[in-house]
Amino acid sequence: MSSEIFALDPLVLFTIIAMASGTYLTRIAGLVLTKFVTFSGRTEAALQAVPPAILMSVVAPAALATGAAETAAAAITAIAALRLPMLAAIALGVLSVVFLRMALTAF
Amino acid sequence: MNNSQNRSAIHADPNEFFLGVKTFFPLIFAAAPIGLLFGALSAQKGLSPLEVLLMGSFVFAGGSQFLALELWSDPLPWLSIAFSTFLINLRHVLMSVSLAPKLGHWTPLQKYLGFFMLADEVWAMSEQRAMKQQTTFSFYMGAALTLLFTWQISTVAGSLTGAVMGDPSRYGLDFAFTALFICLVMGFWQGRKTGIVLAASGLAAVLTYKFVPGAWYIIAGAIAGVIAAALQYDDKPNGFSSSSEILQS
Predict the structure, then answer these.
(1) ipTM over 0.90
(2) Percentage of residues in chain A having pLDDT higher than 90
(3) Less CB within 10 Å around the terminal CB: N or C of chain B?
(4) Are B193 and B232 spatial neighbours (Cβ–Cβ below 8 Å)?
(5) With a CB-CB cutoff of 8 Å, which residues 132-151 of chain B face chain A?
(6) Closest by CA position to B92, among listed A67, A93, A76, A24
(7) pTM higher than 0.95 for the full model?
(8) Residues of B in contact with A75 (CB under 8 A)
(9) What is the mean pLDDT of residues B127-150?
(10) Cα distance from B169 to chain A (closest Cα, Å)?
(11) Does residue B239 sit in helix, strand or coil?
């Protein structure tokens, strides 16, 4: 059991280092960039869209191209996310998908 | 990690350090369940608790860690994972650009060590603090170390218990990923313009996902959304504050 807990695949370690290096670069970028550049206008607007655009791209296939239950539950979660704390919205989304999957299988 | 930094922070101003811990405290209750979920899902994907601990400690960015799990398969697509992680974490560039001028008396070493832990929530709390006065290194470390320990403990705990939980789709937990990301997306909601960005990204991502193998759908969707944002730009100044509001919830 302990060997499983402390298992460390070299490729997994390499992947983690690659992820960490890229992430660190993005985190210190501001320290370097603010010395030289000021972002403004269209470039800033485009950069600000990067996070929602990426998150949407990640979630779109699972949310919109899996099935009717998942698409409906995704819509419920999205509306809930604007009104409820994040954990409550996630819980509501998970409950919705369980219910909708049962309902859609029954009919 | 960062023991000497931590000591010097306490030495410099213990009150600021503990204020950072105290300010961050409520966020533990939002971060810990997500850490448990991350640990449980990574156990499903075959990661060992040690690997989960290392990823949490060194990457320390929940969104990209969930994204990596989503792409995790055999053989491990490490290049896709690393590239997608970099892309999704590009938001940190904006976060650090925004926070960098608001730091009070940090040495260069403190800056480059401290920003290693610039997670969304740490950034949000530091920005909030900066509205009253410049964010001290001690305050920042109080918040950052609180989140780091919460994330390490909760992800490893999830990893250790997740293996006995069984198939997550039984409880609809496979959808928890999707629901989490929808919440993160909606956190950036600023009205109709965001809707157009999301529509462009979503459409490009789904089409690419259907017709192009691999993780390219993320890059395609990101580019489509960024183009949509650039095309919509007018001279109205845009606030960067809304993302911090959500991240606190």
Answers:
(1) no
(2) 56
(3) N
(4) yes
(5) none
(6) A24
(7) no
(8) none
(9) 93
(10) 9
(11) coil
